[in-house]
Every structure is written in structure tokens, then in C-alpha cells.
Amino acid sequence: MLLDGQRTIAHFDLDCFFVSVECLKDNSLKGKPLLVGGKSDRAVVAACSYEARTFGIHSAMPMKMALRLCPHAIIRGGDFDEYTHFSREVTDIIAGSAPLYEKSSIDEFYLDLTGMDKYFGSLKWTSELRQQIMKKTQLPISLGLASNKMVSKVATNEAKPNGQLSIPFGQEKGFLAPMSVEKIPMVGKETAAQLRRRGVETVRTLSEIPVGLLEAWLGKNGISLWNKANGIDESPVVPYHEQKSISTENTFPTDTIDLGFIHSELVRMTEKIGFELRSQNRLTGCVTVKIRYSDFETVTKQLSIPYTSSDHVLLEKVKELFHRLYDRRLLIRLIGVRFSHLVSGNYQISLFDDTEDMISLYQAIDSIKSQFGWQYLMRGSSSAGKHEQQLQPYQKETMIMHKRYPKY
Prior knowledge:
By secondary structure, the protein is of the alpha+beta class. Helix content is 41%, strand content 20%. The longest helix has 21 residues, at 259-279. GO terms for molecular function: damaged DNA binding; DNA-directed DNA polymerase activity; magnesium ion binding. Its EC number is 2.7.7.7.
């Protein structure tokens, strides 16, 4: 019987996604300590196998340090085209079956199955969907089923690797109680350390602390933590639509054929929405460029790409599309750039061949843009036609960074 307010939420998570795809491509890698990432001394680990984790290796760790912990680890450079392909294949399978689903990242999905127990039985249905995904993709995937998103995600983590776990309605608090506070989603090292300094080590202890006291300790985050510790999460499953996009366009004061100027505008526009993409912690899987000629004919061309939010990757695709699209040699009235097929995700995971320096550079640039505005720091190429002596200090600094990091 479905009680008032009772929901049924499933969480699917592809286990060690990048590693699993690499093992699918090369079966000899199974059961071995495998690292996915760049191979230089200053590269970082994008993903690692369970066997590698036993040595203390984790994602975002410098590759050099990972190899000290496990000298015999195998390194694969990463194939984001393949990862994107499999992510979309799983998305298509879920979209063809689920009444309502959310793609929360490249390898995670939430499904709202509320009311389905009246007809099929949610656990049976999700188990069959999981088997279907594994059969069609040959990839391991774990499943958690509960009354809300947070508990279902924790259940999935407990079911890994390649398992499933269902938490009956009303048993959420008891399920979470014996766990360490770090098991609660979004509890990082700093928050966990603050709680442990106050003697709070388990979710049970956290759930018993007065919510007002937690708020005094941690601010609004304290209220959220109290709810999570008590198995409460009202956040909805947000319907996934590939059509969601971030875009910008510019109508020129005077129609132009100055390709140097147009190129600089493409750089400026791509940087603008690239920063917006990273600010929302999203990746794009499709780039579109739009041209409107002086006779008002409007043409567009789009390209599906591996999920990314890295400016140097996006700029390459935007330029490629523009040169493929611009074939009339007429004056241009307007240009536009759009990123679509958005998924949640951190841009660092696409930087397989980049170093700690490159990641730090992106973080520093985004930090400056967050404080002062996206337009404060731009590539020197977005100021085409200006002599270097006429550039603003931040533009000169960008040119210096570009010389040091040519890929950027």
C-alpha cells in the first residue's frame, strides 16, 4: 500500500565507469591495478580500479604519487569518445523504459518510480532494467532503491561493486545510523573533521543532535545534515532533457567579413559560456555554431563531442564548425555559439592528458572570473588587432599564460 508522501526512487551508478570501459576494450586489464589519466609526472589520476584503491590511490591524486604507492599499476590515457558513447547508450536504455529519470552525471541516474508498485513492483522492475543495461553494454552497474534520492545513493554505494540494495520505506534512519558521517553525500573532509572534533563519528550520533545546535556549528549546512542523518530528502528527480543548453550570440553594429575580428568574437563568446558551464558544474556533449549573413539567411551546424567543459577543447570545435559553416563569403551580421546535451560533472575528468598545472590554471582563472566577472580575464586572441603594448594588464597576463600553457 502506498502511503501519503511515500516515494520510490532508484539510483543507478556505473561502477568505476572509465576503468570498466577500458577493461571492456582490453579484457586482460580485469583484476589489475589500473589507473586512467595522463602519463607525465605532473598528470593526475582521473579514475582508478578497486584493485588500485587498495593501495590508497584515489581520483585526482597526482599520478606520480599514485605510482609511488603502486609501482606496478597499469596506466591508460583515457578515451573520452568511448566513455561518452557508453554514457549515451545507457541513457538511451533508461529513457526507453523509465517514466521519469534524471541524468545527474555522465555515469549516474535517478529514476522516480513512485506508484509503480501498484502495477509491476519497483524492485523487480529496476532489477530487470539493471540486467538489461549490463547485457547490452557489458558494463557493471550498481543499484540502490529507497524512498528518496539521498538514501538511494547511499544504498548504491553500499551495494558496490556491481550489486543492488533496497531500503524499505520507514527503515531509512536505521539503515544510515551505524555508518560513519563521511557516508552522507556532500560531507567532505573538512565537515567530517569538524564533526569528529566534537565527538560526532556516526550518523546515529549526528541524527540525535538538536538541529539548532547543528545550525550553530555549521550554518545552513547543519540543517541539511540533520535532515540527511534522519533519512529525510525531499529533492525531486529533475526530468532530463538533452535540449537544455547554454548559449550566446552577438549581432554586430556593422556587417563584417573581418575574419580576425570574428575569430576574436568566437573566442570571447566561447570563454563566456565555457565559464558559465563550469560554474554550474556541467559538461556539454554538443556544440553548435550559428551564422546570420547580411541578407538575413541564417545557418547553423552542430557537432556531438565527448563530454567536456574545457575551453581549449571547446574552442577547437567552435573554430572547426565555423570554418565548415562559413562558405558563402558574404558579410556576416550575427554569430552565435551554443552548448547543449548538458550533464552534471566536473571538468577535471576530461583533462586526461593535462597536468596539475593545467588544472590549477583553470581553477585560478575561474576564481578570478568569479570574483571580478568573466570578462576580466580573457585570452590575448580575443583582443585581435590590438598591439600588445595597448593590452590591459589582465590581457597581457593571459598572453603570458598562453605562452606557458600553449594548449590553453
